Amino acid sequence: MHSIHILSFLIACTISLTVTADDVSPVTVNKTANFPLLDGHCDSAEWRGATLLQLPANINIHIMHNEHSVFICAQGKAEDYTVLDLYIEHGDTKTLYNLHASAQLLERRLIEQQWSKSDFWNHKEWGGFWVPYAGEESSESGKRTKFLTGSSREIQVQKKKFPGDVWQMMVEISGIYQNGKYGASFTYPKNAIDTNTSTWTTFSFSTH
């Protein structure tokens, strides 16, 4: 297993656009000259100028693109695991894809209204920063695995995987700590359904 490391060369000069989850109108994704390092952080100069999607519970989703790739960074609170599910409709085949980043990276497709079996670590033309392993801890049922909270979840998708300058997408963020427990999840747009593209949003890629 290895993470993707991309050097940052230039600082984006586009103006940030902020959109809330209640807004279901098309989203314009800002273009960037940056190549962000997928390292679990999206609050640096690398993400300056990205389009900003704001969800409840202080969750921010940064999204930007360049000639070859689309970059998404989901930023939660210090207590959150911030699990990222990106749903994309293939523009030609109309097949729905789920790109998932939690403790592992996985990919699924919707086949006859059923999501396929999770294909772990066999993703093609995309990658990301998953939830880091943080050792073990004691519980009532014995030892259990710990994962690091507070890091951001990042995904890079090569444009050749999904053709066209307009993508139909939805985003789901889970593993959120709220009201004293984990389990909260939120979608962009609000109330989006993973099997129904009519509830999703159109994302178009700016040319400058």
Question: What can you see in these coordinates?
Answer:
The chain has a 15-stranded mixed β-sheet that branches. Strands 12-13 form a two-stranded antiparallel ribbon. The protein is mostly beta strands and 208 residues long. Strand 8 (105-111) and strand 9 (114-115) form a beta hairpin. Mean pLDDT is 89; it is low at 1-16. The chain has no helices and 17 strands. The relative contact order is 0.22. 0% of the residues lie in helices and 48% in strands.
What best-fitting shape do the alpha-carbon axes yield?
A: globular
Percent range of helical residues? under 10%
Our estimate of the beta-strand percent is: over 45%
Mean pLDDT reading: 89
- Regions with pLDDT < 50 over 5+ consecutive residues? 1-16
Structure described in brief:
By secondary structure, the protein is an all-beta fold. The protein contains no helices and 17 strands.
Q: Helix and strand layout, with pairings?
A:
Layout: E1 18-20, E2 27-31, E3 51-55, E4 59-65, E5 69-75, E6 83-89, E7 96-101, E8 105-111, E9 114-115, E10 119-120, E11 126-129, E12 133-139, E13 142-147, E14 153-158, E15 166-178, E16 181-188, E17 201-205
Parallel strand pairs: 1-3, 2-4, 2-17
Antiparallel strand pairs: 3-4, 4-5, 5-14, 6-7, 6-15, 7-8, 8-9, 8-10, 11-14, 12-13, 15-16, 15-17
